[in-house]
């Protein structure tokens, strides 16, 4: 599975604004002025539409997974880009 393209998104309705994800993986997570975390692309632009995703760089996959596990809001979702199946997060099997 490690070679498959993965994408990540945040459910802002559940985000507690703790910023743990930003500490783990500032390459893909950032707190906005509203105090909530958002994913950001390689262009450093925040993806602020609900459910909007960015690719997870394989080099920081473990950091993203750790942020999913430690997120108090349980609002970070990582899914396979190919079929949309959640592999890490509250909806993963």
What order do the helices and strands come in, and which of them pair?
Layout: E1 6-10, H1 20-24, E2 29-31, E3 37-40, E4 46-47, E5 54-55, H2 61-70, E6 76-80, E7 86-88
Overview of this protein structure:
- With 93 residues, the protein is of the alpha+beta class.
- The chain is built from two helices and seven strands.
- The chain has helices spanning 20-24, 61-70, and strands at residues 6-10, 29-31, 37-40, 46-47, 54-55, 76-80, 86-88.
- The strands form two sheets. A four-stranded antiparallel beta sheet has the order 5-1-6-7, with helices on one face. Strands 2-3-4 form a three-stranded antiparallel beta sheet, with no helix packed on it.
- Strand 2 and strand 3 form a beta hairpin.
- The longest helix has 10 residues, at 61-70.
- The protein is globular, with a radius of gyration of 12 Å.
- The two termini are 15 Å apart.
Query: How are the strands ordered across the major sheet?
Result: 5-1-6-7
Q: How far do the termini sit from each other?
A: 15 Å
Q: Name the helicity range.
A: 10-25%
Mean pLDDT: 95
């Amino acid at each position: 599975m490690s070679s498959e393209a993965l994408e990540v998104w945040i459910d802002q309705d559940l985000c507690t604004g703790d910023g743990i994800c930003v500490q783990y993986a500032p390459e893909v997570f950032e707190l906005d002025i509203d105090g909530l975390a958002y994913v950001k692309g390689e262009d450093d632009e925040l993806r602020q539409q609900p459910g909007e995703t960015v690719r997870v760089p394989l080099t920081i996959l473990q950091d993203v997974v750790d942020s999913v596990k430690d997120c108090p809001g349980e609002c970070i979702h990582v899914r396979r880009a190919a079929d949309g199946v959640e592999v890490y997060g509250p909806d993963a099997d």
